[in-house]
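REQUEST ID: PR-0412
SUBMITTED BY: lab tech R.K.
PRIORITY: routine
TASK: structure prediction, single protein chain
INPUT:
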Amino acid sequence: MRSRRIAPLVAISAVATLVPALTPAVASAATPAPRRTVSADPLRLFTQQPPRWKRCAAETPANYQCATLKVPLDYTRPSGRTLDVAVSRIKATSPQKRRGVLLLNPGGPGGPGLDMPLYMSSELPTAVKEQYDLIGFDPRGVGQSSPMSCGLNDDERNWQRPYKAATFDKDVRWARTVADKCRAKGGDVLPHLTTRNTARDMDVVRAVLGEKKISYLGYSYGTYLGAVYTQMFPKRSDRFVLDSAVDPQRIWRGMIQVWAEGAEPAFKHWSEWTAQRHTTYGLGDTPAKVGKTYWDLVVQADRKPIDFQGTLLTGDDIRAGRAMFFDVKGAAEAIAELKKAAAGTPDPAASKRSEAPRPVPPSFARAVPSDNFDAAFWAVACADTRSWPRDPEQYRRDAIRDKARYPLYGDFASNIMPCAFWKNGSEPATQVNNTVGALVLQNEWDSQTPLVSGQGLRRAMKGSRMVTVLGGQGHGIYGSKSCADKTATAYLTTGRLPAADVTCRATPAQAQNRLDLPLPTSPGLPVRQDRS
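STATUS: complete
OUTPUT:
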């Protein structure tokens, strides 16, 4: 499968050896703050600032240009403190056919998108690149856009914490520590690192570029960001493609909990597929036997950690890899290798397998804190909504309940999070409920935004249409030669949505593609990742 990068809503640590992990790339340039003068329009200083485009980095193509804009920290006080927003572009390849701009977002929250025009230019169809300037940007607090840090160490960045009565008090201390450290470092900025303000920043970008409307391609968290923009700026929303969608009714605790809900049917699907291939994998010739093989390994690893390719895995570490079951072939291979390791007969070739070489990101100007992705994720996830419970005991009760409901991942998803101790964001969550036209793309087997999540966004955006890829697996569709690509390209190039929702079926090759989802080492919905 061709390369893809998608930034995750959770973290997996020890089990990362079962599925490769990737890291996002970043980028930037700089421009002076706009001069402050008295104006009837308080945002005029920002919307009319001239972008100073320059080559993004010495090693990048000359047509890949970057600039840095200024935006208000607090849009209710535009004369106050400002933030940087780093923007990039590759111009439309046909000036005669140019329609406008296509803003791009890879996911997150916390995923940098400044390099998206660079790698999407090799993935998008020619007809799309002829009509649109490709516009990337790092959202506020991310990458080159006034990057945030909480000063978190490696242990504090690991939030994959299964519920146990004996460790719950420690988990509460961890959650409080992360919130306190972010508050100490982020100060007055934290309440304003929200999706609503990022949508406002997008509208400043629109105005600076001289466009009446924007078109948009957003993946994962980027679908929620796009939906919020259509809610806040419906008359400035042109053609929006929302790929692998977040349900706006579930932000953000519910989007973590839906992973547990979605993992159970994925596990059932995997066990059925694997049982039909018992001669290949040796995990059992019925779904029940395959499931028993898996759970026996979990029990064994809880008694004594299994040495898997040099990493000691506990049963909780194995359960934390629930995303693997959305890639039936990859999961069958991984569990077969784990079974051999548990029996003391590991496959020597398995430990020598390595992931594809990672691309070297362009050398942009600003160094990014090592915990930037984590800090930005928690900032948005905690400040976007006021629905996080404040009582730690509520998390305890929910984790106990959901482990019984969803044995694979329920207690991970419902355990205590830093948002329990976060101060409220600057405004309540956005209620997405509009008739703006948009196209929602959704795989049937998506580990990060399960099918029910995409259906939730479709319900909220009543003017949208949805393409469901039956048998499709993986997080992120458009640009992967999916059966949904034709519909998305037609919409971007003609503006015509399907008359009704569309269902297409993945080809056998597409259905068996190895899941290109990185096991996250940081929280967030995966970000599209280039492996070429």
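NOTES: The longest strand covers residues 464-473.
REVIEWED BY: pending
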